[in-house]
């Protein structure tokens, strides 16, 4: 679970405003520290929990349809 902002390295107190981006090899990820994130929108490189859940549901569906063939 992601709890630290990748822009400033701060701890994300309210994940609701978090922005999720595809991981970038160009932009360095900030080193996590214990202070709170002060960004307007915390930034996390990676899939959002919602997208992750949808991917898992799709994966289950694919396994089911594959076993039917
Ligand atoms: Zn931040």
Main sheet, how many strands, which sense, barrel? 2 strands, parallel
User: Level of helix content?
Assistant: 25-40%
**Tally of separate domains:** 1
Our estimate of the beta-strand percent is 5-15%
Record field, number of beta strands: 2
Instruction: State the order of secondary-structure elements, H for helix, E for strand.
Output: EEH
> What would you call the structural class?
alpha+beta
Concise summary:
The chain is an alpha+beta fold and 69 residues long. It has 1 helix and 2 strands, in the order ββα.
Q: What does this molecule look like?
A:
The protein is an alpha+beta fold and 69 residues long. It has one domain (15-68). Helices cover 29% and strands 9% of the residues. A two-stranded parallel sheet has the order 1-2. The chain is elongated, with a radius of gyration of 16 Å. The model has no long low-confidence stretch (mean pLDDT 85). The protein binds zinc ion. Zinc ion (ZN) is lined by residues 5, 7-8, 10, 37, 39, 42.
Give the arrangement of secondary structure elements:
Layout: E1 19-21, E2 43-45, H1 49-68
Parallel strand pairs: 1-2
Bound molecules: zinc ion.
Could you name the key traits of this structure?
single chain; 69 residues; alpha+beta; two-stranded parallel ribbon; 1 helix; 29% helix; binds zinc ion
